[in-house]
Write a structure and sequence with these properties.
The chain is α/β, with parallel strands linked by helices and about 400 residues long. The chain is built from 16 helices and 8 strands. The protein folds into 3 domains: about 170 residues, Rossmann fold (3-Layer(aba) Sandwich), CATH 3.40.50; about 80 residues, Helicase, Ruva Protein, domain 3; about 110 residues, Arc Repressor Mutant, subunit A (Orthogonal Bundle). It is about 50% helix and about 10% strand. The strands form 2 sheets. The chain has a 5-stranded parallel sheet, with helices on one face. A 3-stranded antiparallel sheet has the order 6-8-7. The termini are far apart. The structure holds a DNA duplex (22 and 22 nucleotides).
Length: about 400
DNA sequence: CTTCCACGGGAACACTGGGGTG
DNA sequence: CACCCCAGTGTTCCCGTGGAAG
């Protein structure tokens, strides 16, 4: 009798090092990003000469290498500072995690060994703790704010304070690097903050298929054993990812998943067919993952759209219809329905997530509505919604199916 | 030109969970 | 301990607005 794991280890003839395909892996070489790296290094080099670097704003869609590039340059800069003895450090803050003024300052204060609770104090107190901690010695501190648009959308006070903090410091100096995937987010800011933050701007354009191919080839060399990738695999991964946004993360995910599928099916090589399966599975995972993590009320709104599809046998509905159905569902679930205003917000969120499609149409004499339709297959959302035990009662809503031809 | 409707921005409010203070 | 202060979140309330049918 063979050991249960016999096959599983012997089949590992595909991946030599899967790690390099993960999105968190920071490579040593960045194909097609030399310009951006150079620009970033140029500005930041001031820190090594004892000057204060200009603030930088970095723009680019997801998967264009913004974060990896900044992290790579940071590492190099800190290494050089170590060598020359320059007092210079780089902090990285993901503003999606620390997404309010209070949380950012509390985190920063803690970095400088101040004891600050993550909730409870007045903000200006936290701010001054951070400031005294920072100012304790002469140094240059570069603060990287990733996803800075998330922070800006909740008021520009945090950015305002950070951008003018240098005038209140005796010893230390601060420069900022803001990373955003939204080109327009600066419109929300006070003009003074906007100009201070954007002293230098670096754009990361999306990759085209050719460039994605270079990236994939560069990593595939270490990720896979020789000759396991069929000729068309990488071009196909690149083409599929390029047709979306030129998202390198997606391209790498695709390649990794293709390999995993090949491995699991016991194949010796990765074929185009594996890539197609991976692509399908990736999209499926995306949808179910998003639906699963939706807040309850959003799920109910989504269910309402789904139920309307079932009941009416058509695709698009007015916001009024959706709200009525939402009401019915809430009654069925014995919950207090929210107002129409609130529900329109959920609809917009679902639209942004790509689960439904909503367009505003004007019906002239009969006012304005949003036309709402499901933009993912019904069979993708239905099982996931059903999983939520709070939504079980929905199953008992009768859908009067009328066949209209 | 009017008229109608929901859209969507913004203010106001309620509530939560933590802090400090007397 | 009771009490008030504070940031943050989710919600409701109010209201100006867009734009084609009538």
């Amino acid at each position: 009798m063979e050991n249960l794991f016999e096959d599983l280890i012997n089949d590992g003839r595909i991946f030599a090092n899967k790690e390099v395909l993960r999105p968190t892996y920071i490579p040593e070489r960045f194909p097609h990003r030399w310009e951006q790296i150079k620009a970033l290094a140029d500005v930041l080099s001031a820190a090594l000469k004892g000057e204060t670097p200009s603030n930088i704003l970095i723009f680019g869609k997801t998967g264009t290498g913004k974060t990896s590039t900044v992290k790579y340059v940071s590492k190099e800069l800190e290494a050089m500072a170590q060598k020359t003895g320059a007092k210079c450090s780089i902090l990285y803050i993901n503003s999606e995690v620390f997404d309010t003024q209070y949380r950012v300052f509390a985190y920063l204060a803690r970095v400088f060994n101040k004891r600050v609770p993550m909730i409870g104090w007045p903000t200006d107190m936290v701010y001054s703790e951070f400031k005294t901690g920072l100012d304790a010695e002469e140094r240059c501190v570069i603060i990287t704010l990733d996803e800075v648009d998330k922070l800006a959308s909740k008021g520009d006070e945090a950015l305002y304070n950070l951008s003018r903090i240098n005038s209140e410091l005796e010893n230390a100096r601060v420069s900022l690097i803001g990373i955003s995937n939204d080109l327009t987010f600066t419109d929300l800011l006070d003009p003074r903050v906007k100009s201070s933050l954007g002293e230098e701007e670096i754009i990361f354009p999306p990759y085209n298929a050719e460039q994605l191919k270079d990236i994939l080839y560069a990593r595939a060399g270490t990720a896979f054993y020789a000759d396991v990738l069929e000729y068309a695999v990488i071009p196909l991964c690149a083409a599929l990812a390029a047709s979306e946004h030129g998202d390198a993360r997606r391209a790498l995910d695709l390649l990794r998943l293709s390999g995993e599928i090949a491995e699991r099916s016991g194949a010796r090589t990765v074929t185009e067919e594996h890539v197609r399966q991976a692509s399908e599975k990736l999209e499926m995972n995306r949808v179910t993952e998003v639906v699963k993590t939706l807040p309850l009320q959003s799920k109910i709104v989504l269910s309402s759209v789904y139920l309307l599809c079932k009941e009416r046998n058509k695709r698009r509905f007015s916001s009024g219809e959706v709200y009525n159905m939402y009401h019915r569902v809430c009654n069925q679930l014995d919950m207090d329905p929210l107002t129409q205003r609130r529900v329109t917000d959920f609809v917009s969120e679902l639209d942004i997530l790509g689960l439904i499609n909503a367009v505003i149409v004007s019906k002239g004499r009969y006012g304005r509505t949003k036309e709402i339709s499901l933009s993912v297959p019904e069979e993708c959302v239905q099982p996931v919604l059903q999983e939520d035990y709070k939504l079980k009662a929905i199953a008992s809503i009768r859908v009067g199916k009328q066949t209209t031809f």
